[in-house]
Design a protein that fits this description.
The chain has 201 residues and is an alpha/beta fold. Helix content is 38%, strand content 18%. The protein has a single domain, classed as Rossmann fold, CATH 3.40.50.150. The strands form three sheets. Strands 3-4-8-5 form a four-stranded mixed beta sheet. A two-stranded parallel sheet has the order 1-2. The longest helix is centred in the C-terminal third of the chain and has 17 residues. The chain is globular and about 55 Å long. The model has no long low-confidence stretch (mean pLDDT 93).
């Protein structure tokens, strides 16, 4: 197993026992064709400078399969945090990707046919990505939690401050619980996240 990381800062934070790492970008992987049985990108491809080129590179170095884990932008309005508090997040999504099927179509242009497998998020998810705390709204009030979620750094800081103040007020008053009784009673929730697989022939 080899990890690819473009950031020197992130590389410096990796524990000594972690898998070997190469500093590189997805768009220019420093590996020969068919180097790995499988290649995976987790919640990162939306950050690449040239997403299509990065996906083509994943396919190039994979012998058998490419796997992605990410959210379908067309399903962004499934999440209460986006709809009720951070609607500016929707403005960051290209229009072509907000159309049903648009994301899959874009993936297939670079990867060929893909299979999408819905990945509901458990209520006690320990990873700190954007949708991880859907049943724990107070987590988003913690600055250290928000600092680990790229969405917050991409939004207007004033909008984020207002959203957090409103969420805090709604949690304190009980308004959030009143609106989301159904959420509190769920053990998992589909927020539009998928495992995407592309078989390489």
């Amino acid at each position: 197993m080899v990890a690819v990381e473009p950031s020197a800062v992130m590389l410096g934070q990796r524990p000594a026992h972690a898998a070997p790492t190469v500093q590189a970008s997805a768009e220019a992987l420093p590996f020969a064709d068919d180097s790995f049985d499988a290649v995976m990108a987790v919640l990162s491809d939306h950050h690449w400078r040239d997403r299509c080129q990065g996906l083509r590179e994943l396919r190039r170095v994979a012998r058998r399969r490419v796997v992605l884990f990410n959210a379908d932008p067309a399903e962004s309005e499934r999440f209460w945090l986006t709809v009720e508090y951070l609607p500016g997040f929707l403005d960051l999504i290209p229009g072509r990707c907000r159309v049903a099927g648009g994301w899959q179509s874009e993936l297939e242009q670079s990867l060929g046919p893909v299979r999408l497998i819905a990945a509901p998020i458990p209520h006690d998810c320990v990873d700190g990505f954007y949708g991880a705390f859907w049943r724990r709204p107070t987590a988003y009030l913690d600055r250290s939690v928000r600092d680990g979620i790229s969405v917050f750094s991409a939004l207007n800081p004033d909008h984020v401050i207002r959203a957090i103040h409103q969420l805090d007020a709604d949690v304190r008053s009980g308004a959030w619980d009143e609106r989301h009784v159904d959420v509190r009673n769920r053990s998992e929730l589909h927020l539009g996240y998928y495992a995407v697989t592309a078989e390489v022939s």
